[in-house]
Amino acid sequence: MSPVGWLAVGLLGGAAAGARYLLDAELSHRFSSDFPLGILAVNLAGALAVGLVAGSTLGGEASTILASGAIGSFTTFSTLMLDTHLLDASGRVKLAWLNLALSLVAGFLALALGHGIARSTGF
What we know:
This protein has helices at residues 3-30, 37-55, 60-74, 77-89, 93-121. It is 85% helix and 0% strand. With 123 residues, it is mostly helical. The mean pLDDT is 94. The protein contains five helices and no strands.
């Protein structure tokens, strides 16, 4: 990857991580709940976006910058796992399983939807 590509990954990655924090904080504030809705929304939006990139005509450096730099920094597997663990540890086992199930099933569906949209529109 070119030096400009690496710079783009760093800049977009930093901006995307900040956007993740802001979106999670806003949703968590608006919809106060024991369920980690903010992280679920972030990860589903990221899955949709990765599906769009994967199904698009983008390739090479542009695809890497978007998928790894921006979307990879926007989404967060580690926070999903931490939230699930904290739900389980606090006795909210059903919410922990719901978090895992929604994240995995809806995440796969969002990725497939994004891929399908990109393919059908020639994105």
